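Researcher: I'm preparing a figure for a lab meeting and need a structural model of a single chain. I don't have an experimental structure, so a prediction will have to do for now. The sequence is pasted below. Please return the structure as tokens so I can convert it later.
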Amino acid sequence: MPSTPTPTSPAPATATLSAATPSPATTGLKTVLHPVSDLARAKAVHTALLGVPPQIDEPYYVGFEVAGQHIGLLPSGGPQGLTSSLAYWHVPDIEAKLAELTTAGATLTEAAHDVGGGRLVATVTDPDGNVLGLLQDR
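Model: Understood. Here is the structure written out token by token.
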């Protein structure tokens, strides 16, 4: 019978990744965009929340980098017309991941395109209507 860790005993050892373990299909959710109606007020709130000033501060976009995350504020939902927050999964090959997702049943919403600096983004919608963002840095 396996032991159950207690607050004073160590947890059982867990498996570690070996060289034979395939690399992950994503490096995680690292970018979240929020549509905002008042950019100045949203910037003040997020500066207070995150404890750092924005690294990008333009009338069309405000972006923060903190703890390995990028938080972006888009006035009026930006060119994407966002009406809710959108999280982006960072992937090594955006075209391959789009093909995999659409084969699995997702619908392409926004084809991969460069948004500057070699960064590609795309979105798909899952069968329940959830929008999933993909991001690849080249």
